[in-house]
Known about the structure:
The chain has helices at residues 3-16, 21-29, 34-49, 57-66, 71-78, 83-94, 109-124, 132-142, 146-153, 158-171, and strands at 31-32, 54-55, 106-107, 129-130. It is mainly α. It has one domain (3-171): Double Clp-N motif (Orthogonal Bundle), CATH 1.10.1780. Strands 1-4 form a two-stranded parallel ribbon. The chain is globular and about 40 Å long.
Amino acid sequence: MTTSVRWLGFWKRWRRRPQSEANLELLALGQFTSAAKRTLKLAEQESIRSHHSYLGSEHIVLALVHQRATFAGETLSRLAVSESEVRAVIEAVLGHNQRIELLEIIPTARVKKIIELALREARGRRSISVRTDDLLLGVLIEGEGIGAHVLQDRGANLNRVRETLRLVAQDGRLIEPIDQ
């Protein structure tokens, strides 16, 4: 069984577990656009690439900055946040673990909180679909993870990101459809 299949199984079990109101909201309303799903998959691949046994905010940020044709990617591009710069900073902070056999990638409590915050952002837009920009805002609202600090150090704070997202949405060029 591959790591991604195991992680997906953990993810599905976590989403079904009604431990809090937020988890119930994820179960009832937590549809993700295909780009948001792809972001979470890319984040997992970043974790594996770095030989980490966890999925952290830094992996989500690397996945967001990699996908330029999304709301989050376009926003970060307009704020001059480059993938190579973000990757270099994150690798300098965390480094790579020695090559190890990863059996399961486990999302940290911080990532779970980011996803809950992303859902709230989607609901604030009166939508049930979580887009990549909701994930980006979730990272920044949570604010304590390595991913948030890297973005803030590059000038992508919550206020600037919200303003840039508003401009990106007004352009009307990007659409993130929900997988059916």
